[in-house]
Design a protein that fits this description.
This protein has 4 helices and 9 strands, in the order E-H-E-E-H-E-E-E-H-E-H-E-E. It is an alpha+beta fold. It is globular, with a radius of gyration of 19 Å.
């Protein structure tokens, strides 16, 4: 496998990769108000808890961004890397196995992963890990100290993937996606 910067002709090939996934777990959020004596009189506070919940059966989940939204968004990304198969026939372009898109926010010292997608038939074979390592190297070359990944709470495979690679939960945004789903944010320190 070889990781390289994407070319414009890779765009449609990347869009053809199925980004949906199957999961049997979700992160469920519970919000509760804190009450006196934990909170002073006349004050209010909320506590949020996330817990992993087993589903009664596996569910197929579509990607949170539409094809058109991803196409339009990619023109505004600072980094776009693809993983392609090595040793393929020289007459045919090597197949693209997956891709990662990145945005730099130097004022926050952070790089954001917009999309990290691996073709279903190549998942769990190291492609995502290689793309993530390339994203880390890209962020370090940009002089950034943190890498942030946004994930749906239904995307247990991505949450597990991120946590096993050192990412830690750092926040959430309620009703973040077009379907009003929550976004969970995971951070990896690069320093």
């Amino acid at each position: 496998m070889h990781i390289r910067p994407a070319r414009w002709e890779d765009l449609e090939t990347c869009l053809a990769i199925d980004p949906s996934y199957v999961t049997d777990r979700v992160w469920q959020m519970e919000a509760r108000p804190l009450t006196f004596p934990l909170v002073g009189e006349g004050e209010s506070a909320m506590t949020f808890t996330f817990r992993s919940v087993q589903l009664p059966r596996p569910m197929h989940v579509p990607y949170p961004r539409s094809l058109e939204a991803r196409r339009a968004d990619w023109y505004h990304r600072d980094g776009f890397l693809v993983a392609e198969e090595e040793g393929a026939d020289l007459e045919e372009p090597p197949p693209i196995l997956g891709y990662v898109t990145l945005s730099a926010q130097p004022w926050h010292d952070v790089a954001w992963i917009g999309d990290l997608v691996v073709a279903p038939e190549h998942r769990r074979q190291g492609v995502g890990t290689a793309l993530l390592q390339a994203a880390v190297e890209w962020a370090q070359q940009e002089g950034l100290g943190r890498l942030i990944l946004e994930v749906q709470p239904r995307n247990h495979p991505a949450i597990s993937f991120a946590q096993h690679r050192g990412f830690v939960f750092c926040g959430f945004h309620d009703r973040y996606y077009a379907d009003r789903d929550i976004a969970l944010f995971f951070e990896l320190s690069l320093r």
